[in-house]
Design a protein that fits this description.
Layout: E1 3-8, H1 11-18, E2 25-29, E3 32-39, E4 42-48, H2 53-65, E5 71-80, E6 90-98, E7 120-121, H3 124-137, E8 141-148, H4 156-166, E9 170-172, H5 175-184, E10 189-197, H6 203-233
Parallel strand pairs: 1-4, 1-5, 5-10, 6-8, 8-9
Antiparallel strand pairs: 2-3, 3-4, 5-9, 6-7, 6-10
Helix pairs in contact: 1-6, 2-5, 3-6
Bound molecules: ligand 4EZ.
The site of ligand 4EZ has 17 residues, from β5, β9, β10 and α6.
């Protein structure tokens, strides 16, 4: 039976998902809580990892290796870089990079380490499915590059550098690490984010004001994706 992992980084990012599941079981594992449910005949495992690349790596790995999930969907918020992305807009990651991975001192490009690659591509079928879902909902979902790093960006200069090196459209703190895990373990993954701020000097205020409403926008779309995946799986 298909088992879908749905993860976020913060409680606010998964609460709207848990609210849509009638009944779930809480399992404590690896110093975190995982919520298991059956939803329209498929198994779902939901968790928030805590913020950053290390915790999100742990959670993604656990959902795949311990819980046996077959696909992974990430729902959350992000800082917008592309000026076309406004607060509340959705962005689907086509590929992701770690913007704070830096061994350029040895002549390597930003985001690159030997044996790895600067970008990890998300699953094309899930991206296609998201376009179909968006169309059905009469919504627009922008596709783009997401840059991930262990910092809350609130500075134009940092933002400009991320554009310079990665041509990123949005940034956050978990997507690329989840991508690396799923890619290594051959698990199709989909990273969706709704914009909460624009990573400038006002970012922390904007984040506090909009993170909850944007998290709900992302979570609602993810649940439509789940329904669509289930439909295709029947
Ligand atoms: C990280 N997430 C923010 C966590 C902030 C505060 C207690 C998304 C995000 C983000 N990440 C939204 N805006 C961002 C920004 N400007 N820089 C980095 O995934 C925790």
């Amino acid at each position: 039976m298909l088992k879908i992992a749905i993860m976020g980084a913060m409680p606010e990012e998964i609460t709207p998902i848990l609210e849509k599941l009638n009944n779930y079981k809480t399992i404590k594992y690896a110093d975190n809580e995982y919520y298991e449910a059956t939803y329209e005949g498929v198994e779902i495992v939901v968790a928030y990892s805590k913020i950053g690349k290390v915790f999100s790596t742990l959670t993604a790995t656990t959902m795949i290796q311990h819980f046996g999930c077959d696909i992974l969907l990430f729902s959350g918020v992000a800082g917008g870089i592309n000026p076309s992305l406004k607060i509340g807009d959705l962005i689907v990651a086509t590929k992701l990079a770690q913007h704070d991975l830096d061994i350029t001192a040895f002549g390597h490009p930003m985001g690159f380490v030997p044996g790895g690659s600067v970008f990890v591509e998300a699953d094309k079928n899930l991206i296609e499915l998201s376009k179909k879902v968006a169309k059905e909902l009469g919504k627009t979902v922008q596709e783009g590059v997401i840059a991930t790093g262990d910092q809350f960006v609130h500075n134009e200069k940092v933002k400009d550098n991320i554009v310079k090196y990665f041509n990123a459209d949005a940034l956050e703190m978990e997507g690329a690490s989840v991508a690396v895990v799923c890619n290594a373990l051959n698990i199709p993954f989909f990273i969706l984010r709704a914009i909460s701020d624009t990573a400038d000097t006002d970012a922390s205020f904007s984040f506090d004001e909009f993170m909850q409403s944007s998290a709900i926008i992302s979570a609602e779309f993810i649940m439509k994706m789940v329904q669509s995946i289930i439909g295709n799986n029947k």
